[in-house]
Amino acid sequence: MNDPKRTTFEELVKDVILLDDVMLSIRSDGAIAEVRLEKKTPFRIREQWATIGDEREAWHVHVNIQEAKEAKFIIESSEDGRKRYSIRFYNSENRLVLRVNFMKMYTAENEVIKESLTRYENLFSKYGKKETIVLHT
Question: Among the residues of 18-132, which ranges form H helices?
């Protein structure tokens, strides 16, 4: 288990990109970008900027790690009775910076896929089962 008191953006994202079926979501006024991550997506940090993806390829995302102050493990109910699982990164003004969505959580028959739920639960446990984690730089 990681020490949730000393967790960094880098640690958490490195763990996320090792998982199957996750998608990044970035929202701005009037638009949403969604990117499905492949296992072992390139990730690096240079100064205050984290780069997810490869700048020479079709897509990449830059995140100012000094702005990502908090991570929240979120489980929310949707209208269809399913639960949605995500990790959301917020800045110091509690505005969303980046969202990691856990995909393929249910079968076509609306049954939870245990392996998918375990991915989320294992990551949640690794970070001390804390719904909110203050991130350190």
Answer: 114-126
